[in-house]
Amino acid sequence: MSDWIFLLTILIVLSFLLRLITHLQTWRYFAQIASTTTAQNWQPNVSIIVPVKGLDQGALANFRSLCNQAYVQPYELIFALESESEPAVPVIQALIQENSDQSIRLVLSNPLGLTAVGKLKNLIAGYRASRHEVIVLIDSDVHVESDILTRSVNVVEPSGAGAAYAVPVCEGSEDWVAALHNLLINNSVPSYASTAYQK
Length: 199
Known about the structure:
Largest sheet: 4 strands, parallel
Order of helices and strands: HEHEHEHEHH
Mean pLDDT: 79
Strand content: 5-15%
Helix content: 40-55%
Number of helices: 6
Shape: globular
Structural class: alpha/beta
Strand order of the largest sheet: 3-2-1-4
């Protein structure tokens, strides 16, 4: 066996062992979270800020999932875009008409004259427009479960944390480029959970 084949074999085995360890730590981390999560009564009003650029695959379904939250307290949904020329504007306007009983707003960051750019600029505009105590930031390409607000608040309040982060998991793809993107994102989940477990 040549030195190169031996070295490659060692690298493959080490890579496999590292992936196995991260998967085991992932299962242990989520088991620990499940055992320590308790029902809580603290459910403040929430502002969900969604920075939007372009029009993502399944955008309308993603936006609708934010409107269908099983959350007992009022929450507002703020879509922050740079300008009215964004392709997502008609989709958001249709969503606002569909859900006229909910607090859904579209805010534009360009007129504010912010020095920030891109996503950060939109987040700042959304934050300035927010009205509630707890701020939840969700990317526009995320489809959420109906209990995401309840679970998010549950993570933050009991621990006294000022911020929490949820690792995205991708599903569904319309083409091979999206499929590769989803594969790369999902492959990183065990690494994030492993890191969280070690903190």
